[in-house]
Amino acid sequence: MRFYKGQALGNDYLVVDAADLTSDLTPERAVRLCDRHFGAGSDGVLLGDLAATPVRLRIINPDGTEAEKSGNGLRIFGAFLYRRGLVRLNEWFDVVLPKDTVAMRVEKELDAGAVMIRAQMGRARFDGAAVGFTPQAGETLDYELPLAHGTSARINTVSLSNPHCVVFVDALERSDFLERTPQLCTHKAFSAGTNVQFARVIGPNELEAWIWERGAGETLASGSSACAVTAAAVRRGFVKPGPFIVRMQGGHVDVTVTEDYQVELLGPAQMVYEATLMDGFFD
């Protein structure tokens, strides 16, 4: 099976053309493929159906579950399509996901084969029902959720067709992040788990975020998380609608949030290598 590897601000994915599959990519095989010690190693697998019009994409997490959307994954897939000559510079194209369709555009070629890609991520929603938050179906902002050992987190739920739990903090502290984010990610209040972001506003058009992704754990960056953090900051009144820089551990992306919470993402992605699995790898 031939596969390709790409990265977006240190968030890495393996890209597989469905036509190259020699057998079904089951959850168990995806786990093996993503394993950083016994497999190729990645934050997930992007399985693309290039024969479909528009192209279709499934996003498989390192634990074998599937994600509804990934801003970094989409940009990596866009870089893959561009490298294959299937999309052109400055021309919009659609990528169909399980729950919605994302319009994208390769806007600029960068160094070392990287490209700058814009993605229209859709309208952010803040009701708990949209992210499977069972305690409250309506808009869930600054909601205090109990955690272990008498601690809690004041959460803001955001949906961009995938679930997010944004926690605004005065300072990003490593021990606090590692203690509370895994609890929130798998909290029983979220019926299907959630992505978690600890974030802070550092300027009128600038935010900082650390990310714990559902099905993957801590990641250096996340495009949809950056969008969720920015939309939540606007909704809470911390900043006004407009363009923003969101800084993460792997680098920064540009996010624009309109007054009606339409969200657009702009950031780099780079294809790194292509390879072929050895015969019998999945055996």
Write out key terms for the chains shown.
alpha+beta; 283 residues; Diaminopimelate Epimerase, Chain A, domain 1; 4 helices; globular; 17 strands; 2 domains
What does this structure look like?
By secondary structure, this protein is α+β, with helices and mostly antiparallel strands. The chain folds into 2 domains: 2-120 and 269-276, Diaminopimelate Epimerase, Chain A, domain 1 (Roll), CATH 3.10.310.10; 128-265, Diaminopimelate Epimerase, Chain A, domain 1. It contains 4 helices and 17 strands. The chain has helices at residues 27-34, 71-83, 174-185, 223-235; strands spanning 2-8, 11-17, 45-49, 55-60, 66-67, 93-96, 101-109, 114-123, 143-146, 152-159, 163-168, 195-203, 206-213, 217-219, 242-248, 251-257, 262-276. The chain has an 8-stranded mixed barrel. The radius of gyration is 18 Å and the shape is globular. The mean pLDDT is 97.
Strand content: 35-45%
Total of helices: 4
Number of domains: 2
- Low-confidence stretches are none
* CA-atom Rg in angstroms: 18 Å
Largest sheet: 8 strands, mixed, barrel
- First-last Cα distance: 13 Å
Tell me the total number of β-strands. 17
The CATH homologous superfamily name of the largest domain equals Diaminopimelate Epimerase, Chain A, domain 1
CATH topology of the largest domain: Diaminopimelate Epimerase, Chain A, domain 1
Please give the structural blueprint.
Blueprint: E1 2-8, E2 11-17, H1 27-34, E3 45-49, E4 55-60, E5 66-67, H2 71-83, E6 93-96, E7 101-109, E8 114-123, E9 143-146, E10 152-159, E11 163-168, H3 174-185, E12 195-203, E13 206-213, E14 217-219, H4 223-235, E15 242-248, E16 251-257, E17 262-276
Parallel strand pairs: 2-3, 4-6, 11-12, 13-15
Antiparallel strand pairs: 1-2, 1-17, 3-4, 4-5, 6-7, 7-8, 8-17, 9-10, 10-11, 12-13, 13-14, 15-16, 16-17
